[in-house]
Amino acid sequence: MDNIVRFFSKKRSWSNYKDGILDYYLEPYLVKVSKLQRPILIVDCFAGPGKFGDGSLGSPLIISNRLAEISKRNIQVHGYFIESNNILYEQLEKNTSVLNIKKTVRNGCFRNYIDEIAYLAKTHTVFVYLDPIKPSDLLFDDLKAVYDNLRSGQSVETLINLMSRNFLRGIWGNIKKFALNKTILNNHPLVIDFNNIAGGPYWQHIVTDHTITQKDQIDLFAKEYTELLHRWFNWTIHYPVREKYSYQFPKYHLVFGSRSPDAVDLMNRSMVNARRKFVAANYVEGMLFPNQPEKEVVKPIDVERKILEVARKIGKTTWKMLRIYSTIDDPCMYTDSEFNHAIKKSIRKGILKSSCPGTKIENDAYVWVSDKT
Predict the structure, then answer these.
(1) Which residues, 6 or more positions from 202, have their beta carbon under 8 angstroms from its beta carbon?
(2) For residues 184 and 191, is the Cβ–Cβ distance under 8 A?
(3) Is residue 151 within 8 Å of 173, Cβ to Cβ?
(4) Whole-model pTM?
(5) Among 129, 121, 126, 115, which Cα is nearest to 162's?
(6) What is the DSSP string of 188-234?
(7) 169 φ/ψ angles, rounded to the nearest 5 degrees
(8) What average pLDDT does this structure show over 50-74?
């Protein structure tokens, strides 16, 4: 039994974390995109067996359950699951055989099916989930043909498990092979491979800057990778997921891209929900007194300060966009509801000026920083 098959014998804490975010997000996402009156396609490019050895559901069954729920509203749905490992593929076929939704189960590398997925994206609303086993499993441009449908007005979103730490570890462990006097040899095969995974050579200035700690190198790489997705997506956010709260390095970063600002609200809400459950499991549940780190205690005044900080940066904007930009500035810290409350309170205090009185949420109302602030 190889390592990949053994991995699925038991669901780990970090898998619960990311699958929890996926599951939480899909419910409101599917309700929202069902209003587009188009068939919905969810693609899982690294599907695994569908179920872990301990009985825990994997992403294909989590996706299928959500698709089955929305299909009860007479919405056409399609689950598309790909697995390259032959043993896991056989288990995937078995575990998805009882599903009563339209499904496609493929064996092989997901790159073999990109053209088919891109074709379906012309007529479907598409969500692509990418959870590779190792960094080299996913090159930045692999989904280009699918993402390019955004340019013709189609709806495509992506959620990527970016193996940021393992990517940088691969560079740190091999850098002497392709760096001469701190200069990267750009024609070296390893450098070309790293460029293809990252989507460009920007990682080079990160790893050769020895004033940046390894932890910050990982976070900076994830940030720049996420920003590069703006090639296709108007809105992106990323968030580090740790195996344990106290660990310095993240296990990976979850990276999300969408053309819709509303999706930022939904995905951030999913990430905040997962983060707070994670913190509660480590510091609250089973404790006589909660002892979570200070920064995990939500203080309304801190949310107001974030709103004011962002409002000063971007100038006059709508209530909705102030909330969205505040979320992007500090993702996975506060929910859209908490930001809305902070905006209302700031308007009533006179810290923000607005075209509305601040007694209720008015997404299209304009807000700006008071001259007296």
Answers:
(1) 224, 228
(2) yes
(3) no
(4) 0.94
(5) 129
(6) SHHHHHHHHHHTSSTHHHHHT-TTS-HHHHHHHHHHHHHHHGGGT-S
(7) -60, -40
(8) 94
